[in-house]
Design a protein that fits this description.
The chain is mainly alpha-helical. It contains five helices and three strands; from the N terminus they run ααβααββα.
């Protein structure tokens, strides 16, 4: 586990963050920061970006916003399979933690 995770330049301006913000009725900046909280949780609690036995509602608690997990699914920032949650592109952003 790394002591840091990258903040991508222009994160609040990315289309998927803007879409997430619209779905949740929050600002793009709040959506970006809440994503960072979720990504920090994933970095701390998974080895490979797969949160086994977890449901999207867990991310509502992590982000502090009702519906956050399902909204993240809708914008492609999260996947779900039979084993739990999958954070796409994990290897791109969290290789120091893996």
């Amino acid at each position: 586990m790394a002591e840091w995770i990258p903040w991508t330049k222009g994160l609040p301006l990315k289309p998927e963050i803007a879409h997430l913000a619209r779905i949740l009725g929050i600002s793009r900046y709040e959506a970006a920061c809440r994503c960072m909280a979720v990504w920090e949780w994933a970095d701390e609690n998974t080895v490979d970006g797969n949160a086994r036995n977890a449901l999207p509602a867990l991310l509502d608690d992590v982000a502090g916003v009702t519906g956050f997990g399902n909204a993240l699914l809708e914008v492609g920032g999260l996947l779900v399979d039979d084993e739990g949650l999958i954070f796409p592109n994990w290897e791109r952003w969290n290789t120091n933690s893996a």
